[in-house]
Amino acid sequence: MSSVATPAPAPRRPRRRRTKLQRRQTRLAWLLLVPSLAIVALVAMVVWGRFFVLFVQGEGQGHVQSVVLGAMLFVVAVQLAALGIIGDLLASNRVLIQRALERTRRIELKLGVEPSHYEPAERRAAPRDETVSGPSTEEHETIPLGR
């Protein structure tokens, strides 16, 4: 029997879940978006139905505004659906970026690297030219806001 040691499997990190606030925001967005999308699409169908009924009865001439209004409402419904999908994708992308930043920061901390997003600026004493920029804020008289 050989005594070859097998490496221990890496511990699995628990899957991150959305925070309560993120879930609430997503739920609120969908609760506002889906009914408004359904209402706009339903109104478009009603307007188109009115034109179709008039057209079948032979009185469709002169009711083109119903077709135009229905088409406009249908386009609005499609745009609402697209905005909902884009918003959900943006939220997912934000979570992925946050995870990547946290992972990068964790690796930097393990390696002892200074944070990459913070680099202190050099202190330079620049000569002040009051003719160009005027007096500093501290030299101005304060103006009371309330009367």
Describe the secondary structure blueprint for this structure.
Elements: H1 20-56, H2 64-111, H3 130-133
Helix pairs in contact: 1-2
What profile does the largest beta sheet have? none
What order do the SSEs take from the amino end to the carboxyl end, as H and E?
A: HHH
What is the tally of beta strands?
A: 0
| Uncertain ranges | none
Which value, in Å, is the CA radius of gyration? Answer: 31 Å
Strand percentage lies at: under 5%
The separation of the N and C termini measures 93 Å
Helix fraction bin: 55-70%
How would you describe the shape?
elongated
Q: Helix tally? A: 3
Mean pLDDT: 76
**Alpha-beta content class:** mainly alpha
